[in-house]
Specification:
Length: 138
């Protein structure tokens, strides 16, 4: 099996999509970004990812236009990583992947999407929604 994609693969929409978001850490970082995480230390603490791997993944997500890197502190300069419109457009994909995974678990092992600890009040309200109970973080 060839490690480099052939021309036909590069022209396939699924193949090009997987090149951008098909890596394990990338999907988990995007999931955390949807939960409201924006800062390096938040991603690192949530995922238990090494700083070098996180740096690499964040740079790729920025280069691919899925996250925007912008300063939030001047001295010392610190940056946050915010979903772009293109990044936000992946939300249904992430939800579908999670739903597919959940459907293969025993009922007591299944999870639901809830607002994470870094979520804004608006995000918490959206996850709480009608009939969902309180504002559960996760």
């Amino acid at each position: 099996m060839s490690e480099r994609p052939v021309l036909e693969d590069r022209e396939c929409p699924l193949s090009t999509t997987v090149q951008h978001v098909g890596e394990w850490w990338t999907l988990l970082i995007l999931h955390d970004a949807f939960d409201g995480y924006t800062r390096f230390d938040q991603f690192q603490e949530s995922l238990g990812i090494s700083s070098s791997m996180l740096t690499t993944r964040l740079k790729t997500l920025v280069a691919d236009g899925l996250l925007e890197r912008r300063p939030y502190q001047a001295n010392p300069v610190r940056h946050e990583y915010v979903l772009t419109g293109l990044g936000r457009s992946l939300r249904p994909v992430i939800v579908a992947l999670a739903a597919w995974g959940n459907s293969r678990l025993a009922p007591e092992e299944r999870s639901i999407f809830t607002a994470g600890p870094a979520a804004s009040p608006a995000m918490r309200d959206r996850y709480a929604g009608p009939g969902r109970g309180g504002r559960v973080s996760g």
